[in-house]
Specification:
The chain has about 150 residues and is an all-alpha fold. The chain has helices at about 20-30, 35-60, 65-70, 75-80, 80-85, 90-95, 100-105, 110-150. The chain is elongated.
Length: about 150
């Protein structure tokens, strides 16, 4: 974590295990000679340094997987304005990042053509079968009419 990223920059160095708050107070107040105002800032600066250290310890101790398991992703996504998000996308930059040659190389053109041709062939065969069935039905109807008349 970068110094002061969460709370804000106050001191140059966080207190480590070998240092104490007293050492930090001495270091903060030493050599400044700016009078009462500088000394009045000391408790706030010391509290800031302690807060930064505590936050760092808490963040380091977090089980991120357990934390993420507690998040309701659906509720989180309900709060996202998709239109606003898409409005921020630079489509030209996104397309410029595409490697068209690699994309085309991933397409199995022969299989795609075979599947398309196969689908078209199946449709044509189904249409021919349907037409043949209609022709059979027509011939059967005419045969029935002719044979009925002949029996009379």
């Amino acid at each position: 974590m970068v110094q002061g990223e969460i709370i804000g920059p106050i001191v140059e160095r966080r207190p480590g295990p070998a240092s104490s708050g007293r050492d930090d107070a001495r270091r903060l107040s030493a050599g400044h000679g700016r009078g009462v105002k500088r000394m009045a800032d000391l408790p706030e600066r010391l509290a800031q340094a302690v807060a930064e250290r505590v936050v760092a310890l808490v963040v380091d101790a977090l089980d991120v997987n357990a934390l993420l398991a507690r998040i309701d992703v659906d509720a989180l996504l309900d709060r996202v304005d998709v239109d606003e998000l898409l409005a921020r996308v630079d489509v030209d930059a996104l397309v410029a990042r595409l490697d068209v040659e690699q994309l085309v190389a991933r397409i199995d053109l022969a299989a795609t053509m075979a599947a398309t041709a196969s689908g078209a062939a199946e449709d044509t065969l189904a249409a021919v079968r349907h037409t043949a069935r209609r022709g059979d039905d027509l011939v059967a109807d005419w045969t029935t009419r002719v044979t009925r008349r002949a029996r009379r």
